[in-house]
Amino acid sequence: MPVLNRFLNSELGRRWKAGEELLPSSVWTLSTYQQGALTMELPELIQLVKLVWKSKHNLQGQKKRGIFENEDALSNYQGEARVREQAGVLSERRGSFPFIDFRLLNTTANSGEIGTKKKLKRLLSFQRYFHASRLLRGIVPQTSLHLLDGDYLGQAGHMLSKVGAWNFDIFLFDRLTNGNSLVTLLCHLFNGHGLIHHFQLDMVKLHQFLVMVQEDYHSQNPYHNAVHAADVTQAMHCYLKEPRLARYLTPLDIFLGLLAATSHDVDHPGVNQPFLVKTKHHLASLYQNVSVLENHHWRSTVGMLRESGLLSHLPVEMTQEIEQQLGSLILATDISRQNEFLSSFKTHLDNDDLSLEVAEHRHFMLQIALKCADICNPCRVWEMSKQWSERVCEEFYRQGDLERKFELEISPLCNQHMDTVPAIQIGFMTYLVEPLFDEWRRFTDNTPLTEAMMSHLRKNKARWRALHHNQHHRGDDGSGQRSEVVESGP
User: How many C-alpha atoms does 475 have within 13 Å on its Cβ side?
Assistant: First the structure.
């Protein structure tokens, strides 16, 4: 039960001796705690869970207040965002994202109320009450704490049995898991790849870490949210299974690939690097305007790894190596380095000198695979590709609205009155997606997965061209163009 992790982690993280109660009475202030019948009634238990949730909510509220109370002072924040917890990589405090006023851009009616109801439903579901009652009675669960409510468990489980299929619908999966798609997917993939056993990972620490990562994605972002992270992770899983790559990968390679995909955009503020630079945001100063967001994603992930203690049982040298390689993978997703990686990839393929027995070459291919997974939306089936396209453009438009509000120069692709969804997508496919995936096709030697992706890419580009042509022909204004694209079906 994620909401009780803060209180139970220290006790659940150790082995229990035979005959010992699961939770000693010292954990709870109730003098009536005992093994046997539940001494707390449902209303009291709900009240207890609410208090725990309120404590957690208050901590998260500090992060939200950072947005709203500083909306008129984007550049006033000063200070060091990093914390040196141990030798090696500097980590960041959680919640150090830009102060941005999202209230102005919130176009969903009663979205706060809906979000609150969803959290309460997820928190107080019968499934979690059931597990809480078992914990309070000192009964050791026979299985791990379920992430899903019982009504959805079977359907989500059926989808996970087909997680390697390219037409995997991450939006449906997120609904079936009640917003826990990232946590559920990663637990399944880590187990399926044998990583939990190989690295002797503590399941409670793993769950705590994944919940922290999922919660540090901002659901108010139309695109850079936990669902995007889950989608990239599922794509990465598919790429790791490609025959030419899979036969050489070590458990550490798979662990790093999936972990990087999961956390590559964690704590993304919904604006790009140029916005942070021109508003003199503290992260831009901290990383000297170089891969600002990617550095933040990496250091935030390192902070959560250390906070959860997920790797604390491994040798220090190995932990530091994991943190460094994780950073190398996440930093590779910086779109400004696209030509650098594409040129190296083409050179390797032209010279036929990729030797995947060499760790350095395998790491390079993990970087390429992650880059492909990060921008693979145009290679999905039209229904999903179109939805992702609309989401990313909506996020661009929100940044443009924010820049307009603060009288800043509107960034390219962010002006909803001039930049239409079809035009943005056609340019994205032409200059970024097609060149990278053409080389990926050379590397994989036209596997069925690659052929399917390239087929979707061609068809999706043709549909966007048709929409763009229709808009231009009708001579609609910017707002009309935008609404027409959003509402048009396949």
Answer: 0
Token code pair at residue 395:
């996020």
Per-residue pLDDT, averaged over 378-393, amounts to 98
Per-residue pLDDT reduced to its tens digit, 218-251: 999 999 999 999 999 999 999 999 999 999 999 9
Which is the catalytic residue, given 224, 296, 348, 468? 224
pLDDT by residue (tens digit) across 86-130?
556 666 655 544 444 444 444 433 444 444 445 444 444 444 444
Q: Which position has the token pair 């696209």?
A: 338
Alpha carbon distance 60, 64 (integer Å): 7
Residues 6+ apart with CB under 8 A from 431: none
Distance CA 187, CA 207 (A): 8
Mean pLDDT in residue range 405-411: 96
Residue 371 to residue 377: CA distance in whole angstroms: 12
Predicted TM-score of the model (pTM): 0.72
The amino acid at residue 471 is Q
Residues marked as binding for AMP? Answer: 224-228, 265, 374, 425
Annotated binding residues for Zn(2+): 228, 264-265, 374
Nearest Cα to Cα of residue 80 among 283, 261, 312, 263: 283
Name, in order, each residue with C-beta under 8 angstroms of 61's C-beta and a sequence gap of 6 or more. none
- Measured CA to CA, the distance from residue 186 to residue 234 in angstroms comes to 9
Q: What mean pLDDT do residues 281-292 have?
A: 96
- Report the alpha-carbon distance of residue 275 to residue 131 in Å, rounded: 45
Q: Is residue 281 within 8 Å of residue 100, measured between CB atoms?
A: no
User: What is the rounded distance in angstroms from the CA atom of residue 232 to the CA atom of residue 234?
Assistant: 5
Q: Taking all residues of the chain, what is their mean pLDDT, rounded to a whole number?
A: 79
Chain centre to alpha carbon of residue 424:
23
pLDDT of residue 153: 64
- CA 68 from chain center: how many Å? 24
Give the pLDDT score at 432: 98
How many residues in total does the chain contain? 490
Bridge partners of residue 405, in order along the sequence: none
Whether 361 is catalytic is no
Helix/strand/coil for 164: coil
First-to-last CA distance in the chain? 41
Residues 6+ apart with CB under 8 A from 364: 344, 348, 354
CA 178 from chain centre, in angstroms, equals 16
Please give the biggest Cα pair distance in the chain.
Answer: 78
Distance CA 52, CA 41 (A): 17
Alpha helices by DSSP H, 16-90 = 42-68
CA 360 to chain CA centroid, nearest Å = 26
Residues annotated in a binding site? 224-228, 264-265, 374, 425
Number of neighbours of residue 207 by Cβ within 10 angstroms: 23
